[in-house]
Amino acid sequence: MPQPRQITSEKQLLVEGNDAVAFFVAFLKHLGVTDVQIQNFGGINELRAFLKALRNEPGFLAQVRSLGVIRDAETNPSGAFQSVCDALNAAGMPVPAKTEMVKDGDPNTSVLILPNATTSGMLESLCLESVATDLAIICVDHYFDCLRKQGVTLPSNITKARTHAYLSSKPKPDLLIGQAANAGYFPFSHQAFDHVKQFLLNL
User: Does the pTM exceed 0.70?
Assistant: First the structure.
């Protein structure tokens, strides 16, 4: 499990993995937000222990006023939300009644499930939605159609595979999603990211 970093801001954003950290660093930069500290809580099964460790960090109770958690829905958006709520409760933190709602407390808490509260998927699902009209997506779809016709076994996570195939059309084809976001390959101004934008601004 990653260890919490020293607290430097009253606004804490917890995300799932280093790639997500890079993605949301780029998003906050796009928004002009400079007062949010991003922490990597690791995998979905590590959030509970990370929250407990974070609460025990020197300065947490005195400094932190707002805490947001972002994680992927995977195949069960409601289950993902409940999992985060259970972790918050186990750490003695306020538990919001629904996603994207701020629960007042010490600290205020909020939870964002990606791509949204009712749809299976992940961060990459939103990224693909934001570039759905890019001409490269036509080629990406043809590529996977070709693989199917040839009887090739497709990756288990087709969303991640399509995202990487799309990124292979860019000037720097080997970037991870967070690096790609920083390079401007996903338009943060697209409506697909509107709820993410609002969540970040509400921290």
Answer: yes
